[in-house]
């Protein structure tokens, strides 16, 4: 659970019995609140401001140590993240790009390998298909630009090409999720479903 508590930006919640209890936590360096969290295997990943941190989840209790205490500095504020294989896909706001792809192969040296600048408002959320070949990026509302972008991430180097985009006609996307591999739901006030 990503939180705004400085002493434990990530709370690990035990849901095996009611009432639920906090069993562990990760206290990221600095005082920036957590924006997003994702777990892959025994490693947790979180964004806090313009940093991406990884932390050890081989145990789910007590204070969890950072794997790379310096973290990785992002191009802007990391709003959401999604992990497929050895790559983290991070939506970015307040920077020169709206998406960064990070190679996670070396946990002590996370590296940005690809970006996407869709010339839009800041990135709000990101979803990646299971093969890691398509990125679905939601950006802030714009009167002149699209808010949903589909990117080709087959090659995870350089600048990602845009496959398609969709204009939400004034709705401000908040989240994105794929449904049944044929539809994409962009969480906006009217919750439109977009056929792909």
Structure in words:
The chain has 196 residues and is an all-beta fold. Helices cover 0% and strands 49% of the residues. It contains no helices and 19 strands. It has strands at 10-14, 21-26, 34-40, 43-48, 51-56, 62-63, 72-73, 77-84, 87-93, 99-103, 111-116, 123-128, 134-139, 148-152, 158-159, 162-166, 175-179, 183-187, 193-195. The strands form five sheets. Strands 8-9-10-11-15 form a five-stranded mixed β-sheet, with no helix packed on it. It is globular.
Q: What's the overall average pLDDT, rounded? A: 90
**Sequence of secondary-structure elements:** EEEEEEEEEEEEEEEEEEE
State the helicity in percent bands.
under 10%
Uncertain spans, ≥5 residues at pLDDT below 50?
188-196
Estimated structural class: mainly beta
Total E-strand runs? 19
Main β-sheet, in a few words?
5 strands, mixed
Q: Which features does this protein show?
A:
196 residues, mainly beta, 5-stranded mixed β-sheet, 4-stranded antiparallel β-sheet, globular, disordered C terminus
Describe the secondary structure blueprint for this structure.
Layout: E1 10-14, E2 21-26, E3 34-40, E4 43-48, E5 51-56, E6 62-63, E7 72-73, E8 77-84, E9 87-93, E10 99-103, E11 111-116, E12 123-128, E13 134-139, E14 148-152, E15 158-159, E16 162-166, E17 175-179, E18 183-187, E19 193-195
